[in-house]
């Protein structure tokens, strides 16, 4: 009796998960369809497909600038946030220190915060400092939100780390730097790698922070939004699809590297 | 004089040596949070008390902005009400939608659960505008749904776009991962032998769920609820892209005050009230949770 019930529960869970996943990817597919349709206005069923809008998007000088801005911001955010988050995660999970509980909670606040409000608050702050918004200020804004997320990602790896390994190395006469390089970093490598992947992808797709803090420098999500509001062209779904594919490729590539790192460790 | 200048660096050095390794590791993040999170919030607070429609922050102190907000002639409270109501409903919807999936990730999918998690994480990396716009293409006249129904001879599709219901749908859609992953961590905290023991002692499946599984998974579920509530309370894109202004959310009022209206002090006062509600709730819930247990320290 119970096992029949359990089998039913399992079947329901599988079906439910599949349905929700279909719903999650449905709009992304709709966008892909619109970008590949011939003609200025989207209609379904699609009468004729063409690569016209993809071609126009790839050729557009404006789009090149957007990709450059988004890429540059994401790369800098990745490098800086992994550095901050690596030490942040050690403080979060590895060391027992007086302020740890408080630090854990303070760190979560930017994550638990509406991003449009954070973007506007940063805009006011930059204004008070006399800094005009540009892609550099967008980097700072992304960091405020992404460093805590990456810290959490790396911290989960740090929890499974055995501190006695570091102590054993120290007892055997290894210097602090040597321990960091030969013991701590290699063990935490999978966490650091997934943290870097998160940092890049979250920065690449971020809209609300860039909207307020990037000033005249536009990014891909910012441009897409402005064109959705006014001046729609099928380049909007085309660029949206390309940006999604780029993120997927990076996630797959990053996931493959992560799997290799994990296997080498095992 | 010379002695003191020589002493100062030496004293600073011993002080830095006395910092615990934890505080030393935390310091880069703490500096970032003070300069990039605390300072902007202080600036917002300062603007909230400045003369309305001015930019002379730190020079005047007035409650006029808050008075304007609570003035009955002003209808801004409806935006607050809508945002909080929608946030509550989003949390309830997501708790129901995400629980079976979170349970499945722990108990049903086995070696596929890594793949399934990645499929749920991925949308986080696609700008939410792109995904919400995809729903517009799905629901719009002659869009995917309407076009497919006409093509099949089922008549026109339902007109759901630009209604409050579609805004809720969009919010549940965008914030699903924020409920799912904390919930999954929470369910992972349930020791299996405890469930087995309860079953051996004759507890029914409903009773096991209510008395054993749910209480043990609660910290993770609470984090998910808090996260989705806070994010949904500050949501803006769903109402703008899918809702077509049928409901004005509070984040939109704040944005309008900052941009078109150029009334930074009023916008700051609104933002400050939202921040007070949201972070008050966040700090209250977080103070009751043991993050070490949830994230995996044994």
UniProtKB/TrEMBL annotation, chain A:
PROSITE patterns, sorted: ABC_TM1 (PS50928)
Keywords from the UniProt entry: Cell membrane, Membrane, Transmembrane, Transmembrane helix, Transport
Membrane listed as a keyword: yes
UniProt keyword Transport, yes or no: yes
Source species, domain of life: Bacteria
Membrane topology: Multi-pass membrane protein
GO cellular component: plasma membrane
Pfam annotation, one family: BPD_transp_1
Subcellular location per the Swiss-Prot or TrEMBL entry: Cell membrane
Any one GO biological process: transmembrane transport
Record InterPro entries: Bact_Polyamine_Transport, MetI-like, MetI-like_sf
Segments traversing the membrane: 12-36, 71-95, 107-126, 138-162, 183-204, 238-261
Domain ABC transmembrane type-1 stretches: 67-262
Alphabetical list of CDD domains matching this protein: TM_PBP2
Family: Belongs to the binding-protein-dependent transport system permease family. CysTW subfamily.
Protein name, entry field: ABC transporter permease
Organism per entry: Segnochrobactrum spirostomi
From TrEMBL, chain B:
Subcellular location: Cell membrane
Regions crossing the membrane: 29-50, 80-102, 114-140, 160-181, 214-237, 269-289
UniProt record, GO biological process: transmembrane transport
Any one Gene Ontology cellular component term annotated for this protein: plasma membrane
Taxonomy, superkingdom: Bacteria
Family: Belongs to the binding-protein-dependent transport system permease family. CysTW subfamily.
Record-given protein name: ABC transporter permease
Originating species: Segnochrobactrum spirostomi
């Amino acid at each position: 009796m119970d096992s029949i019930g359990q089998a039913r529960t399992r079947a329901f869970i599988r079906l439910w998960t599949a349905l929700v996943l279909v719903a999650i990817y449905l709009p992304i597919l709709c966008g892909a369809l619109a970008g590949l349709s011939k003609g200025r206005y989207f209609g379904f069923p699609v009468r004729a497909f063409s690569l016209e809008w993809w071609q126009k998007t790839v050729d557009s000088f404006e789009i090149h600038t957007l990709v450059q801005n988004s890429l540059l911001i994401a790369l800098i955010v990745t490098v800086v946030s992994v550095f901050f988050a690596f030490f942040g995660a050690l403080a979060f999970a590895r060391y027992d220190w007086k302020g740890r509980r408080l630090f854990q909670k303070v760190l979560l606040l930017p994550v638990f915060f509406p991003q449009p409000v954070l973007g506007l608050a940063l805009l006011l702050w930059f204004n008070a400092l006399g800094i005009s918004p540009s892609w550099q200020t967008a980097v700072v804004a992304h960091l405020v939100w992404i460093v805590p997320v990456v810290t959490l990602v790396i911290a989960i790896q740090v929890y499974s780390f055995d501190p006695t390994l570091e102590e054993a190395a120290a007892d055997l006469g290894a210097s602090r730097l040597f321990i960091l390089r030969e013991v701590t970093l290699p063990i935490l490598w999978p966490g650091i790698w997934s943290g870097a992947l998160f940092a890049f992808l979250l920065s690449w797709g971020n809209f609300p922070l860039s909207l307020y803090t990037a000033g005249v420098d536009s990014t891909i999500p910012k441009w897409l939004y402005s064109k959705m509001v006014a001046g729609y062209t099928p380049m909007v779904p085309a660029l949206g699809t390309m940006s999604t594919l780029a993120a997927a490729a990076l996630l797959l590539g990053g996931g493959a590297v992560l799997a290799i790192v994990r296997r080498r460790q095992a | 004089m010379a002695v003191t200048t020589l002493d100062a660096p030496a004293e600073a050095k011993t002080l830095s040596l006395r910092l615990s390794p934890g505080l030393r590791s935390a310091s880069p993040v703490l500096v970032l949070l003070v300069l990039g999170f605390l300072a902007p919030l202080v600036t917002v607070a300062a603007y909230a008390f400045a003369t309305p429609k001015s930019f002379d922050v730190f020079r005047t102190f007035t409650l006029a902005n808050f008075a304007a907000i609570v003035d009955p002639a002003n209808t801004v409270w409806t935006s607050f009400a809508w945002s909080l109501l929608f946030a509550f409903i989003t949390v309830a919807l997501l708790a129901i939608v995400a629980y079976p999936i979170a349970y499945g990730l722990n108990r049903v999918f086995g070696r596929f659960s890594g793949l399934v998690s990645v499929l749920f994480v991925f949308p986080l990396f696609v700008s939410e505008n792109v995904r919400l716009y995809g729903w517009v293409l799905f629901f719009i006249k002659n869009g995917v749904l309407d076009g497919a129904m006409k093509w099949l001879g089922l008549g026109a599709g339902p007109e759901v776009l630009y209604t409050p219901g579609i805004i809720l749908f969009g919010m549940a859609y965008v914030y699903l991962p924020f409920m799912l992953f904390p919930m999954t961590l929470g369910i992972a905290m349930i020791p299996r032998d405890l469930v087995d023991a309860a079953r051996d002692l004759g507890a029914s499946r409903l009773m096991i769920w209510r008395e054993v599984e749910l209480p043990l998974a609660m910290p993770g579920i609470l984090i998910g609820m808090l996260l989705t509530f806070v994010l949904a309370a500050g949501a803006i894109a769903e109402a703008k892209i899918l809702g077509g202004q049928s409901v004005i959310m509070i984040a939109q009022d704040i944005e309008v005050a900052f941009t078109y209206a150029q009334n930074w002090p009023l916008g700051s006062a609104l933002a400050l009230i939202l921040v007070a509600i949201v972070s008050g709730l966040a700090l209250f819930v977080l103070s009751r949770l043991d993050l070490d247990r949830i994230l995996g320290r044994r």
